Amino acid sequence: MRKKAVIFDLDGTLSDSINSIKYCADKALAKVGYGPFSVKQYQYFVGDGAANMVRRALETGGDTEHAYFEEVFAEYKEIFRDNCMYEVKPYEGIRELLTALKEKGLKLAVLSNKPHVETLRVIETLFGESCFDVIQGQKDNVPIKPSPVGVFRILEQLELTAEEILYLGDTATDMKTGKGAGAFTVGALWGFREREELEAAHADAIIARPLELLEYI
Fold it and tell me: For the residues 101-126, what does the mean pLDDT come to?
C-alpha cells in the first residue's frame, strides 16, 4: 500500500538534543550531589519520558530507592522549560528529507515522549510552525511510548490507517510503538542507540541516513 504519511520520533531522530537533556539533568542532579553523567549514558537514560530518565540517572548514581526523585524531577522540569533548546539542532539530512516528503504529498507528524509544550517549541524553532501536520508530545491524558495510543490519535487526525504510514525512530521503544499500532517501522542509525537494539526490536527496516527513508515510500 502506498504510504501517505510519516510519523517521526523527535529526540534522536529529528533533533540532536542529547546535550540539552544532559545539561538540564546534570544541573538538577547536582542539587543532590549526583552526576555529571556522560553523553553516552544519557543516550540510554532517555527514551521513555523524562521521569524514567531521571530515575535511571539516580539509579546509576546510587539512589536505587529513588529517594531524591521528586526533588530532582521537579528541578529538571523547571530547568528544562528554560533550556530545552540548548545546543539542539536537526540531524544532517533531515531538512532535505522533510522537503522531499512534502513534495511527494505526504503528511508529516511527530510523536514524542518529550513534554508537549517543549515538543512544540523544538519543532517550531527548528522547522517552523507549518512543517508538520500533527505534533504530539507527552500529555497527562495520553500514555507515553511504547503505548501505541499516541499513534492512533495521530492517525485519527490524519484520517489514515496504520498501513498507510511509516514510523521512524531510533530506539526499541519507537519500534515497539510503531509495531503496536500496526505500522511499518524504520530504525534510524544516526540517533541515540545501536543497530543491535533496533534489530532486536524487529525494525522492518534500518537506515543510516535520513534520505534513505524515501526508498520505503
Answer: 97
